Amino acid sequence: MRMTAEDRRADVLRVAVHEFAKRGYQGTSTEDVARAAGISQPYLFKMFPTKKALFLALIEHGFGRVREAFVEAVGNATGDEALERMSACYSELMRDRDELLLQMQAYAACSDEDVRRKVKLRWERLMKVTGEISGASGDALTGFFARGMLMNVLASIRLVPEKSADKWGHEMLGYG
């Protein structure tokens, strides 16, 4: 059965997450992404006209993934319970090392103005929706995101064993 264009695009994004997570924005070639996806470089450029367009799509994908997971995790909870649920959810999301490292690569690539604008926009949207779905105060949200970024760094350098990520993440965010 032939893949639809949408399925092929999703497959390329999945492969590109891995490639960009390893080498970053500057160090990843579109040739490597195309090869890993099993497509030609010209076909990759039909889907994503530039390497930057591909990277920006990955940023959208990554932030969207976190947003969707947070909304699903919160359900009808509010306040600290909502933050606790999002904390547990985020600990689970961090198990995908490629997605975690890609997120860190996106922050590192913010010297590029287009990347910085995309990351800033998506960060602001995530903060807004997290506040809306949790009802948490601005101070609580700031603390939640600050601890989440600390978790990112510690997980990136593998300071905490992966098998303890759930408990650790929960405790790191102050809910354990």
What's the SSE blueprint?
Blueprint: H1 5-27, H2 30-37, H3 41-47, H4 51-74, H5 79-93, H6 97-108, H7 113-134, H8 138-156, H9 165-172
Helix pairs in contact: 1-2, 1-4, 1-6, 4-5, 4-6, 4-7, 5-8, 5-9, 6-8
Query: Structural class, from helix and strand content?
Result: mainly alpha
- Low-pLDDT stretches: none
Tally of helical runs: 9
The Rg value, from CA coordinates, equals 17 Å
What is the ordering of alpha helices and beta strands?
HHHHHHHHH
Helical content (DSSP H or I, runs of 4+): over 70%
- Mean residue pLDDT: 90
Shape: elongated
Strand content range: under 5%
Sheet with the most strands, sense and barrel status: none
Number of strands: 0
User: What distance separates the N and C termini?
Assistant: 48 Å
Structure description:
The protein is an all-alpha fold. Helix content is 78%, strand content 0%. The chain has nine helices and no strands. The chain starts with a helix and ends with a helix. The model has no long low-confidence stretch (mean pLDDT 90).
